[in-house]
Amino acid sequence: MDMEVDSMGLVRLIGIFLPLFFIMSAFGQELMNTEEMIIKYRSQLQSMDEDTRISALVGLRKIGARNGQVEEILISALKDKSGYVSVLAAEALSRENKAIKHALPVLIKALESPLDPAFKTGRYVKDWKRVAAGAIGNYGSDAAPAVPALKKALKHTDYNVRGYAAMSLGNIGLASKSAMPDLQKAISMEKIDGVKKIMIEALSKLKVL
């Protein structure tokens, strides 16, 4: 009888701890895979090929800048000789609200640049200004220094840039109230319904502040 009770108890314990073992094993494997991927992407960022470096940033973006190693790598990538790579690094940091003092100047510079490199080379469309306009708003009110650049971007020839600029102005909030006349003018001139809707929503946000 005692043996029977012990056996049943053992079965229950196995039933409890076996799933936990598999969960912990999977978690450990995931951590190991993440470390391996970070090492791989760090190495790829040393490549002379721009597309390879862009692919590395796409991978790091998926892991996220909450990971301290990834944040460190992304901050270093802000100095990449390719403007598009540096903008992508800044965008990845902005998604986690990280390293604003390093990333925001890169995004503003891209948005204000006289160059307008929305073109495709290799595997990627390098639309710097669209990426920058959208990423700035991820920093919320802390992105106030970008308001002048965003106001100018409301007049951009690319409707994607105009839309993201309006969205970021709305996300920045109170510090963007000076952009209300710019948004009103942009709304009156906008031909793309979807972009006009975004502009109206941004203006509505600012009106209630």
TrEMBL record:
<dbReference type="GO" id="GO:0016491">
    <property type="term" value="F:oxidoreductase activity"/>
</dbReference>
<dbReference type="InterPro" id="IPR016024">
    <property type="entry name" value="ARM-type_fold"/>
</dbReference>
<dbReference type="Pfam" id="PF13646">
    <property type="entry name" value="HEAT_2"/>
</dbReference>
<dbReference type="InterPro" id="IPR011989">
    <property type="entry name" value="ARM-like"/>
</dbReference>
<protein>
    <recommendedName>
        <fullName>HEAT repeat domain-containing protein</fullName>
    </recommendedName>
</protein>
